[in-house]
Amino acid sequence: MAVSAASRAWRLSPVDQAPLRPLDPYASASSGVSAGHLDAVKPVGRVRVSMIEAYLRANKMFVDKHEPKTERVFSSYLELDLSEVEPCVLGPKSPHDRVPLKEMKSDWHACLDNEVGFKGYAVPKEQQGKVVKLDFHGRPAEIKHGSVVLATICSSTNTSNPIVMIGAGLVAKKAYELGLEVKPWVKTSLTPGSVVATEYLKHSGLQDYLNQQGFHVAAHGCATCVGNSGDLDGSVSAAITENISLLLRYCQPTETSRGRVNPLTRANYLASPPLVVAYALAGTVDIDFEKEPIGVGKGAKEVFLRDIWPSNQEIDEVVESSVQTHLLIQESVRLHHGTQILVVALVWRLEFMYTVS
């Protein structure tokens, strides 16, 4: 039996809905389209919005909040109180394991204690607090169970959502201004799902702050999340293999398979882009963001997550000024024409093509 997406979906903006929509097929749901969705695609400049709306209305697929509710027929109804939604991460072994952010520290310690399973590693008590000191290219560092060694903002629907991408940039900016920087043992990268994301981050000036924190653009599309993260630094790899068997990556792709991104990371978590930056700054998941500081900044002042977390207004102001129509159209045109490298490299002989349009 098919289940339609919630009839009040228009109250969420299209960009906020985008990360949720890929989950629809798992619930055998069809995604409704509203006027807000059509407004969202108008800036792209390559779709006939009026034609799409006419088609959707003719096929009873258009959600119009002004029409009588009796006109809408659903096979099932689900209600969600958005006021009860709270920040969460997923992991450490399965994307189905949701952990409220405020419970992350206690959940991590429980995972260390629990028997080996989806939520357990059975690490002996005497080994859980073991600290390994190392010289990271002249900088003193130390890692232990729960240390984040790989943090990446990966290609997915979220990296095409300007709200969370701008949010990540603002977290990096605020942290830099307060004197915080990503821990030296954390390997960082940024692989947006769209070149447009890179362009508006540059236009807003936030990419400079992401670069300062080590989140340089490494590629576009699937890269780190499919295992192309590259090796960890030699000193970190040696410390893990010789002393500690359980380290972490914090990332934002669409799965949490153990060792998929790097064989040395047995615990893996998914988080929003701003939280990926926050955990890279903390360098560990063994932290309660509500009660413990991420680090010590300028003037020996403790800095908490709340000090670097941007407000909705701050994010909206940057989105309004930096996510511009001409960027979307420009990259759309470039996508179809390709780069000079692609034009030279991909010269296909007609007889080798499967289809010819």
UniProtKB/TrEMBL annotation:
<dbReference type="InterPro" id="IPR018136">
    <property type="entry name" value="Aconitase_4Fe-4S_BS"/>
</dbReference>
<keyword id="KW-0816">Tricarboxylic acid cycle</keyword>
<dbReference type="GO" id="GO:0003723">
    <property type="term" value="F:RNA binding"/>
</dbReference>
<dbReference type="GO" id="GO:0051536">
    <property type="term" value="F:iron-sulfur cluster binding"/>
</dbReference>
<keyword id="KW-0694">RNA-binding</keyword>
<dbReference type="InterPro" id="IPR036008">
    <property type="entry name" value="Aconitase_4Fe-4S_dom"/>
</dbReference>
<comment type="pathway">
    <text>Carbohydrate metabolism; tricarboxylic acid cycle.</text>
</comment>
<dbReference type="Pfam" id="PF00330">
    <property type="entry name" value="Aconitase"/>
</dbReference>
<dbReference type="InterPro" id="IPR006249">
    <property type="entry name" value="Aconitase/IRP2"/>
</dbReference>
<keyword id="KW-0479">Metal-binding</keyword>
<dbReference type="InterPro" id="IPR015931">
    <property type="entry name" value="Acnase/IPM_dHydase_lsu_aba_1/3"/>
</dbReference>
<keyword id="KW-0411">Iron-sulfur</keyword>
<dbReference type="GO" id="GO:0046872">
    <property type="term" value="F:metal ion binding"/>
</dbReference>
<dbReference type="InterPro" id="IPR001030">
    <property type="entry name" value="Acoase/IPM_deHydtase_lsu_aba"/>
</dbReference>
<feature type="domain" description="Aconitase/3-isopropylmalate dehydratase large subunit alpha/beta/alpha">
    <location>
        <begin position="45"/>
        <end position="283"/>
    </location>
</feature>
<protein>
    <recommendedName>
        <fullName>Iron-responsive protein-like</fullName>
    </recommendedName>
</protein>
<comment type="subunit">
    <text>Monomer.</text>
</comment>
<dbReference type="GO" id="GO:0006099">
    <property type="term" value="P:tricarboxylic acid cycle"/>
</dbReference>
<keyword id="KW-0408">Iron</keyword>
